[in-house]
Amino acid sequence: RGCGPNGEYINTSTFTTRIMVRPAASKLNRDIAVRFAGVVSLQTNDRDDSIPRLGCCSMFALLQQVMPQVTRSELVDNYHGISAVELNKALQVDDPFFLS
Q1: What's the pTM?
Q2: How far is CA 57 from CA 2, 21, 86, in A?
Q3: What tens digit of pLDDT does each residue of 70-83 get?
Q4: What angle do CA 43, 35, 30 make, to 5 degrees?
Q5: Which pLDDT belongs to residue 11?
Q6: CB 62 within 8 A of CB 21
Q7: Confidence class of residue 43 from pLDDT cuts 50, 70 and 90?
Q8: Following DSSP, what letter does each residue of 50-92 receive, concatenated?
Q9: CA dist 71 to 19, 38, 42, 45, Å?
Q10: Rounded distance, CA 64 to CA 62, Å?
């Protein structure tokens, strides 16, 4: 049996479906955020010199205050902005010792 109301087969290629896609940072916003982090921070050899991943002292919080148009959060509705999690992942890939 098919999946139609009377057991017939339905040609699903004629249906148009809208797929909800998870928001993701654009390459431009990701690059801006990573370069911003590199400009406003200084790498040291001291293990106690680290930047928190979350909270008011995080790199994302600073980026959100200085360049909110690049970010995405509950406060800023920017579909292609970078989220705190995406920024942390991007920074960890570029420099795994960047965040605490």
Answers
A1: 0.71
A2: 58, 30, 17
A3: 999 876 678 889 99
A4: 130
A5: 61
A6: no
A7: confident
A8: -B-SSSTTSHHHHHHHH-GGGB-SSS---TTSBPHHHHHHHHH
A9: 24, 16, 22, 29
A10: 5
